[in-house]
């Protein structure tokens, strides 16, 4: 796996945040193809990217802002206007290494903290072997024919096995069109799913979800290793993931060789 990554490396943080922003753009492109009625949109703003994926979607947020230097008041106004005209809250996923000008606007404009996320990463080697045994769990790629199945499994997993309402399914509608999607199966039945975007040699792992009855059987670890193998074969140099601090996902990614690089603060303001 190579030497540890540096949590003080600004260029590394820029690269990871750029990968996340590219994933946001891909999400919008997928939604535009799958659900043009949602009027998904994206703009490069303040060194990052603003993403609108629906008024109530957790995928509606700004990523990577302030990573290329100071953000002017006019540029921050433009960021807020992007969300205001779409009648949704401004949500910013803020990297702690963003330029201090961003923190100034957040402090002086009445933003509130919504959530903390740990950004974790690890190196990848092209010849690295990532063996993993998870009992009867195996992982397959979800192609076009399995897109609806992948959406259903992931959505139900996030809703603790409940039937997802139509507006919740909308969030995932475009993902299989623009991301590499994987299904974890047990006895030929899908029990979990996850996705991966690749940008500039960085594989961004996301969407890890397991149905309630199949948890604690190694499903997430199998999905992590399958994506790492796919990313390494494709020539990616790094893999990253964003997880809730202290969660089961946090622990599983640590077991898979990921290290904590920084904590991202998600803040929001009603405009």
> Do you know the CATH architecture of the largest domain?
3-Layer(aba) Sandwich
Strands side by side in the biggest sheet: 1-2-3-4-11-5-10-9-8-7-6
Q: What is the first-to-last residue Cα distance?
A: 45 Å
Q: Number of domains in the coordinates?
A: 2
Uncertain stretches: none
| Strand coverage percent | 25-35%
Identify the CATH class of the largest domain: Alpha Beta
* Number of alpha- plus pi-helical segments: 8
- Overall SS class: alpha+beta
Q: What is the ordering of alpha helices and beta strands?
A: HEEEHEHEEHHHEEEHEHE
The overall pLDDT average reads 94
| Relative helix content | 25-40%
CATH-assigned homologous superfamily of the largest domain: Gcn5-related N-acetyltransferase (GNAT)
What would you note in describing this structure?
This protein folds into 2 domains: 10-119 and 265-269, no CATH class; 137-259, Gcn5-related N-acetyltransferase (GNAT) (Aminopeptidase), CATH 3.40.630.30. The protein has helices at residues 10-34, 73-84, 100-108, 147-158, 166-170, 175-178, 219-233, 248-255, and strands at residues 41-45, 48-52, 61-63, 90-94, 112-123, 137-141, 180-186, 189-199, 202-210, 238-243, 259-269. Strand 3 (61-63), helix 2 (73-84) and strand 4 (90-94) form a beta-alpha-beta unit. The longest helix has 25 residues, at 10-34. The protein is built from 8 helices and 11 strands. With 271 residues, the chain is an alpha+beta fold. 33% of the residues lie in helices and 29% in strands.
